[in-house]
Amino acid sequence: MKLLSLFFWLICAACEFSATGRAYGHGFAGARFFPATLSTDDPFVSDELSLPTVSTIRTPDDGGTRETDISVDVSKRITPDFAIEIGDSFTALNPHDGRAANGFSNLELAGKYQLLKNGEHEAIVSIGLGVEIGGTGSRSVGADSFSTWAPGIFFGKGFGDLPNEARFLKPFAITGQLGVAIPTSASTRSVTIDVQTGERDIEVERHPDVLEWGFALEYSLIYLQSQVQDLHLHAPLDRLIPLVEFALETPLNRGEEGQTTGTINPGFIWAGKYFQVGVEAVIPINERTGNNVGVIAQLHFFVDDLFPNSLGRPLFGGNK
Amino acid sequence: MKCIVIFLILVAASARLEAHAFLKDANPGVGSTMQTSPSEVRIRFTENIEPAVSSIQVFDASGKEVDKHDLHLDRSDHALLHISLPQLRAGTYKVVWRVVSVDTHVTNGNFTFRVVR
Questions:
Q1: The whole model's pTM is what?
Q2: What is the pLDDT of residues A137-180, one digit of tens each?
Q3: Which of A111, A130, A308, B26 lies deepest, with the highest CB count within 10 Å?
Q4: Which of B11, B22, B109 has the CB atom closest to A306's CB atom?
Q5: Range 78-117 of B in CB contact (< 8 A) with A
Q6: ipTM of this complex > 0.90?
């Protein structure tokens, strides 16, 4: 298996350095470059690799638990408008009281189809369907034993079509997502037996459908410099995209209606030729989410720029 | 783990490759004001460009193309494109570019500059 894997990568390398075919872009709509955001899903399909995304925050669970996640996400275009994604996380839980635990979360798979791309108005709309595969992760870090489906819609819009009188607002863009996470199990029961009395204690945990929504508001200094006004910014400022992300979840039923949790994540992304680096603070919106500020950071590779003639192009359907 | 190491080696090895071409600088500058008519528009990109499948157009405020249709690559800098201009009247001009980098990535953009007299 290791030899097969090595062979695959060598073939990719050989294709890369010998092919003369075409490869096309990631996160572009007209003159707008949309970076891959850290906390909300992207509105475009692309060949990309997030390796790794690291986040840490103290949650209110068990009197305060430090949760640290290290995750990897890969997205691969099958056609110019359709991509599949696969991701997984390694989670470490360190409760204030009690034993630490760590393990992998459930494997996540997704498909995304880009419905619309309008260069003139810098707009992109995609739809997607994700699934968290139950039972593939470790129960010790809270991985569910059941699967959860998550259809959603994703959008991106640059403000480059504003009139020239408002030209310094043109570098703004907004991306966002709206979806519903639908667990395949409405509830799970756990039974504990008191060894002294023999009494059975049945605990029922309910799993509501959850509205997953969020957006990112970003101001691209790349766009400002190249489309609006050259301010002669130098590296690294000239490739910087300050942004604030809102990542929110609202249960829809099963006794938890309206109990929104989420975070507001201000930070920045620096986008280079072949990769981008992003760092954000993670600020809980309410006590239900937590009382402590966390941090998330990501190293993200543009596979279509790194390997434009092999891994970075769609498998089928030519180029677009 | 081995796949990750090999990927990173390939990333390092791919340094010879090009990527998406972003505008690096331009003359007249993006959003600039010129006291006199420039004789040409020059745009330098972050990557080397394929001039045969790239374009730069310059339009006046009424939308009429005013450039001389002679787009060409700089002899010594293959990331630098030139297009000549006639004597321009005072006004605002829009530069619209679409370029293909040598690895065939396509990017486009536009900016304006103003001529005072």
A1: 0.87
A2: 999 999 999 999 999 999 999 999 999 899 999 999 999 999 99
A3: A308
A4: B11
A5: 103-112
A6: no
